Prior knowledge:
Layout: H1 3-9, H2 13-18, H3 23-32, E1 40-44, H4 50-55, E2 61-66, H5 69-81, E3 87-91, E4 104-109, H6 119-129, E5 130-141, H7 147-157, H8 169-178, E6 181-189, E7 195-202, H9 205-209
Parallel strand pairs: 1-2, 1-4, 2-3, 4-5
Antiparallel strand pairs: 5-7, 6-7
GO molecular function: S-adenosylmethionine-dependent methyltransferase activity
InterPro entries: Methyltransf_11, SAM-dependent_MTases_sf
Protein name: Class I SAM-dependent methyltransferase
Amino acid sequence: MDKAFWERFASLYDLAMKTRGGAADEAAAWAAARVAPDARVLDAACGTGLFACALAPGAARVDACDYAPAMVERTRAKAARLGLANVSCSVEDACALSFADDAFDAAVAANVLHLLDRPEAALAELSRVTKADGLLILPNYVNAESDGAMRFQKLIGAAGFSPARSWTADGYRAFLEANGLVVEESRLFDARQPLLVAAARVVGRAARRG
Protein backbone atom coordinates (compact mmCIF):
# COMPACT_ATOMS: atom_id res chain seq x y z
CA MET A 1 0.00 0.00 0.00
CA ASP A 2 1.05 3.58 -0.57
CA LYS A 3 1.35 5.20 2.86
CA ALA A 4 1.52 8.69 1.34
CA PHE A 5 -1.86 8.11 -0.31
CA TRP A 6 -3.51 7.16 3.00
CA GLU A 7 -1.87 10.09 4.77
CA ARG A 8 -3.35 12.47 2.19
CA PHE A 9 -6.71 10.69 2.16
CA ALA A 10 -7.23 10.55 5.95
CA SER A 11 -9.11 13.86 6.11
CA LEU A 12 -11.52 12.74 3.36
CA TYR A 13 -11.94 9.10 4.38
CA ASP A 14 -15.12 9.46 6.43
CA LEU A 15 -16.75 11.55 3.71
CA ALA A 16 -15.83 8.96 1.10
CA MET A 17 -17.29 6.18 3.23
CA LYS A 18 -20.65 7.96 3.32
CA THR A 19 -20.88 7.71 -0.46
CA ARG A 20 -20.73 3.90 -0.20
CA GLY A 21 -23.91 3.50 1.84
CA GLY A 22 -24.27 2.21 5.38
CA ALA A 23 -22.73 -1.23 4.94
CA ALA A 24 -19.59 -0.39 6.94
CA ASP A 25 -21.63 0.95 9.88
CA GLU A 26 -23.80 -2.18 9.84
CA ALA A 27 -20.71 -4.38 9.66
CA ALA A 28 -19.15 -2.56 12.61
CA ALA A 29 -22.29 -3.15 14.68
CA TRP A 30 -22.28 -6.82 13.63
CA ALA A 31 -18.67 -7.14 14.79
CA ALA A 32 -19.31 -5.35 18.08
CA ALA A 33 -22.15 -7.75 18.92
CA ARG A 34 -19.70 -10.66 18.79
CA VAL A 35 -17.13 -9.29 21.23
CA ALA A 36 -17.34 -10.22 24.92
CA PRO A 37 -17.83 -7.35 27.41
CA ASP A 38 -14.52 -8.03 29.20
CA ALA A 39 -12.48 -8.43 26.00
CA ARG A 40 -9.31 -6.68 25.03
CA VAL A 41 -9.64 -6.12 21.29
CA LEU A 42 -7.17 -5.16 18.58
CA ASP A 43 -8.37 -3.06 15.65
CA ALA A 44 -5.54 -3.38 13.14
CA ALA A 45 -5.50 -0.96 10.19
CA CYS A 46 -8.12 1.06 12.06
CA GLY A 47 -8.43 3.84 9.48
CA THR A 48 -10.36 6.69 11.06
CA GLY A 49 -11.76 4.53 13.85
CA LEU A 50 -15.16 3.33 12.65
CA PHE A 51 -14.74 -0.19 14.02
CA ALA A 52 -12.67 0.82 17.07
CA CYS A 53 -15.34 3.27 18.21
CA ALA A 54 -18.14 0.77 17.55
CA LEU A 55 -16.33 -1.93 19.55
CA ALA A 56 -15.25 0.22 22.50
CA PRO A 57 -18.60 0.63 24.33
CA GLY A 58 -18.91 -3.15 24.68
CA ALA A 59 -15.26 -4.06 25.32
CA ALA A 60 -12.83 -3.65 28.18
CA ARG A 61 -10.21 -2.05 25.93
CA VAL A 62 -9.60 -1.47 22.25
CA ASP A 63 -6.08 -1.04 20.87
CA ALA A 64 -6.48 0.74 17.53
CA CYS A 65 -3.54 0.96 15.18
CA ASP A 66 -2.73 1.94 11.61
CA TYR A 67 0.47 2.40 9.68
CA ALA A 68 -0.59 5.89 8.53
CA PRO A 69 -0.11 8.38 11.41
CA ALA A 70 -2.81 10.68 10.04
CA MET A 71 -5.35 7.85 10.30
CA VAL A 72 -4.28 7.16 13.88
CA GLU A 73 -4.79 10.80 14.78
CA ARG A 74 -8.28 10.72 13.26
CA THR A 75 -9.15 7.66 15.34
CA ARG A 76 -7.76 9.24 18.51
CA ALA A 77 -9.77 12.42 17.91
CA LYS A 78 -12.96 10.49 17.16
CA ALA A 79 -12.64 8.37 20.29
CA ALA A 80 -12.03 11.48 22.41
CA ARG A 81 -15.02 13.25 20.85
CA LEU A 82 -17.21 10.25 21.73
CA GLY A 83 -15.83 10.02 25.26
CA LEU A 84 -14.34 6.56 24.71
CA ALA A 85 -11.55 6.46 27.28
CA ASN A 86 -10.82 2.77 26.66
CA VAL A 87 -9.45 3.29 23.14
CA SER A 88 -5.65 3.35 22.86
CA CYS A 89 -4.10 4.42 19.55
CA SER A 90 -0.70 3.70 18.02
CA VAL A 91 1.15 3.51 14.71
CA GLU A 92 1.70 -0.12 13.69
CA ASP A 93 2.26 -2.23 10.57
CA ALA A 94 -0.40 -4.97 10.43
CA CYS A 95 2.20 -7.32 8.92
CA ALA A 96 4.70 -6.75 11.76
CA LEU A 97 2.81 -5.94 14.95
CA SER A 98 4.76 -5.05 18.11
CA PHE A 99 2.21 -6.61 20.47
CA ALA A 100 3.03 -9.74 22.46
CA ASP A 101 1.70 -13.20 21.65
CA ASP A 102 -1.80 -13.86 23.02
CA ALA A 103 -2.30 -10.20 23.95
CA PHE A 104 -5.91 -9.97 22.71
CA ASP A 105 -9.19 -11.78 23.17
CA ALA A 106 -10.29 -10.72 19.69
CA ALA A 107 -8.85 -8.90 16.70
CA VAL A 108 -10.44 -6.96 13.86
CA ALA A 109 -8.87 -6.03 10.55
CA ALA A 110 -11.42 -4.22 8.41
CA ASN A 111 -11.15 -3.54 4.70
CA VAL A 112 -7.39 -3.94 4.53
CA LEU A 113 -6.48 -7.45 3.37
CA HIS A 114 -7.35 -6.72 -0.27
CA LEU A 115 -4.92 -3.79 -0.19
CA LEU A 116 -1.89 -5.78 0.94
CA ASP A 117 0.74 -7.42 -1.24
CA ARG A 118 1.06 -10.13 1.42
CA PRO A 119 -2.27 -10.46 3.24
CA GLU A 120 -1.08 -13.84 4.55
CA ALA A 121 1.50 -12.02 6.68
CA ALA A 122 -1.21 -9.89 8.28
CA LEU A 123 -3.33 -12.96 9.03
CA ALA A 124 -0.32 -14.64 10.64
CA GLU A 125 0.30 -11.60 12.85
CA LEU A 126 -3.35 -11.27 13.84
CA SER A 127 -3.38 -14.97 14.76
CA ARG A 128 -0.18 -14.59 16.78
CA VAL A 129 -1.37 -11.72 18.95
CA THR A 130 -4.85 -13.23 19.54
CA LYS A 131 -5.44 -15.90 22.17
CA ALA A 132 -5.91 -19.47 20.98
CA ASP A 133 -9.64 -19.38 21.71
CA GLY A 134 -9.99 -15.83 20.44
CA LEU A 135 -11.95 -14.53 17.47
CA LEU A 136 -10.71 -12.85 14.31
CA ILE A 137 -13.29 -10.57 12.71
CA LEU A 138 -12.27 -9.78 9.14
CA PRO A 139 -14.58 -7.47 7.17
CA ASN A 140 -13.44 -6.98 3.59
CA TYR A 141 -14.81 -5.56 0.37
CA VAL A 142 -15.50 -8.30 -2.16
CA ASN A 143 -15.63 -6.21 -5.31
CA ALA A 144 -15.47 -9.19 -7.65
CA GLU A 145 -18.92 -10.12 -6.36
CA SER A 146 -20.49 -7.64 -8.80
CA ASP A 147 -19.68 -5.93 -12.10
CA GLY A 148 -20.81 -2.61 -10.64
CA ALA A 149 -18.33 -2.86 -7.77
CA MET A 150 -15.50 -3.64 -10.17
CA ARG A 151 -16.41 -0.60 -12.28
CA PHE A 152 -16.44 1.52 -9.11
CA GLN A 153 -13.03 0.11 -8.14
CA LYS A 154 -11.60 1.17 -11.51
CA LEU A 155 -13.14 4.62 -11.11
CA ILE A 156 -11.57 5.28 -7.73
CA GLY A 157 -8.32 3.83 -9.03
CA ALA A 158 -7.88 7.11 -10.90
CA ALA A 159 -7.49 8.80 -7.49
CA GLY A 160 -4.62 6.52 -6.51
CA PHE A 161 -6.57 3.73 -4.81
CA SER A 162 -5.21 0.45 -6.10
CA PRO A 163 -6.24 -2.80 -4.35
CA ALA A 164 -3.76 -5.65 -4.71
CA ARG A 165 -6.58 -8.15 -5.35
CA SER A 166 -10.33 -8.49 -5.77
CA TRP A 167 -12.25 -11.38 -4.24
CA THR A 168 -15.76 -12.75 -4.54
CA ALA A 169 -17.46 -13.65 -1.26
CA ASP A 170 -16.72 -17.34 -1.77
CA GLY A 171 -13.18 -16.57 -2.87
CA TYR A 172 -12.52 -14.49 0.24
CA ARG A 173 -13.82 -17.20 2.57
CA ALA A 174 -11.67 -19.74 0.70
CA PHE A 175 -8.62 -17.49 1.09
CA LEU A 176 -9.13 -17.26 4.86
CA GLU A 177 -9.56 -21.01 5.22
CA ALA A 178 -6.49 -21.69 3.04
CA ASN A 179 -4.52 -19.66 5.58
CA GLY A 180 -5.40 -21.74 8.60
CA LEU A 181 -8.70 -20.20 9.67
CA VAL A 182 -12.11 -21.73 10.24
CA VAL A 183 -14.85 -19.28 9.24
CA GLU A 184 -17.53 -19.84 11.87
CA GLU A 185 -19.91 -17.18 10.65
CA SER A 186 -20.10 -14.64 7.86
CA ARG A 187 -22.48 -12.07 6.48
CA LEU A 188 -22.52 -10.28 3.16
CA PHE A 189 -23.64 -6.65 3.30
CA ASP A 190 -24.89 -5.48 -0.08
CA ALA A 191 -23.70 -2.03 -1.15
CA ARG A 192 -21.93 -0.26 -4.01
CA GLN A 193 -18.93 -2.24 -2.77
CA PRO A 194 -20.26 -5.52 -1.32
CA LEU A 195 -18.78 -6.10 2.14
CA LEU A 196 -18.28 -9.57 3.60
CA VAL A 197 -17.71 -9.84 7.35
CA ALA A 198 -16.15 -13.13 8.46
CA ALA A 199 -15.75 -14.30 12.06
CA ALA A 200 -13.03 -16.93 12.20
CA ARG A 201 -10.75 -18.91 14.50
CA VAL A 202 -7.32 -20.42 13.95
CA VAL A 203 -7.24 -24.14 13.19
CA GLY A 204 -5.33 -26.24 15.72
CA ARG A 205 -3.50 -23.34 17.29
CA ALA A 206 -3.76 -24.60 20.85
CA ALA A 207 -2.40 -27.99 19.78
CA ARG A 208 0.57 -26.41 18.03
CA ARG A 209 1.42 -24.45 21.17
CA GLY A 210 1.12 -27.42 23.46
